[in-house]
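Quick question, first post here. What does this chain look like in 3D?
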Amino acid sequence: MINKIPRRLRTILTEFINLILRIVGFVPSHHIRRFFYRISGVTIGKGSTIHMGAVFYDPKHIKIGEDSIIGEGTVLDGRDKLIIGNHVDIASDVMIYNCKHDVNDPSFKTVCAPIAIEDYVFIGPRAIILPGVKIKKGAVIGAGAVVTKDVEEFTIVGGVPAKFIKERTKDLRYKLGRAAWFR
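> Answer (accepted):
Ran it through. Tokens below.
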């Protein structure tokens, strides 16, 4: 029983931080939100923005590259590594989970695996990214897709589960723009 106390205290602290970040997520100033996200452990690159209503779970393992956008209401799971590259556009209400329950385990244990999202990726609204996935450079994830496997470079995928649709141009040089003050 004594051995469970430190683990339980860590859980309570993590849940409290998650609650604070959920409240901070609705502050109508990008600069204030970014300040709190950084002190909670999220690494945020230059020029990147996180829109209102984003939800973080255990943020210390989340790294966001430069000039990337995290849309409104997006869920970012940091219980394992979550690396988001440069010039990544994640639309609204996307869910990125790097932990899941093993439904065949008698104790329903949690299984975690890192997620990597490389440069110039676009993830459409309400897509779901599941544990252990690597989305390679320039890939596009269609709206509502459920990504269960790695996505190759410069490919467009969609559906449930996500499947190859076609290739994307390889000449990507865009910048996503500046953060709005009150978004």
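Residues 4-167 form a domain with the UDP N-Acetylglucosamine Acyltransferase; domain 1 fold (CATH 2.160.10.10).
The radius of gyration is 17 Å.
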